[in-house]
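sry for the spam today, last one i promise. struct tokens for design, 129 residues
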């Protein structure tokens, strides 16, 4: 069953530095809703309002990922306007970075860098645990 977005495209557009969507936002909102439903909805430490905001910022993140981003651009007078540092995964956009900041559970940070998650395993059998 497909996830159901709780944010509207106008909610997402309100936080973005664009005035209108070039592509339909629904597929990107669906991706964000899927992450919210699968990874965040069961967490009691996040309120509905927090999950809404995380989904909104993730929607903007996935929408922005669909376009090539410039590291810098030249303005008419030759001035270079540089963007701040971004990385990969949720760090790729400022929207993804904000979503991770809003997620006080740390779940998105773990999804962003699975190696950072400490995983316990029992390699010697139950009698040695």
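last one done:
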């Amino acid at each position: 069953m497909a996830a159901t977005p709780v944010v509207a495209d106008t909610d997402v557009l309100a936080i973005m530095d664009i005035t209108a969507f070039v592509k339909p936002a629904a597929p990107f909102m669906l991706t964000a809703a899927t992450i919210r439903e699968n990874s965040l909805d069961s967490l009691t430490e996040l309120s509905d309002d927090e999950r809404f905001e995380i989904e909104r910022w993730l929607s903007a993140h996935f929408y922005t990922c669909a376009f090539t981003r410039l590291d810098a651009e030249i303005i008419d007078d030759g001035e270079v306007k540089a963007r701040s540092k971004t990385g990969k995964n949720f760090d790729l956009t400022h929207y993804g970075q904000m979503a991770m900041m809003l997620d006080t559970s740390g779940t998105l940070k773990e999804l962003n860098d699975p190696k950072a998650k400490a995983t316990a395993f029992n390699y010697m059998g139950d009698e040695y645990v």
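Residues 9-66+80-113 form one domain. ok im logging off now
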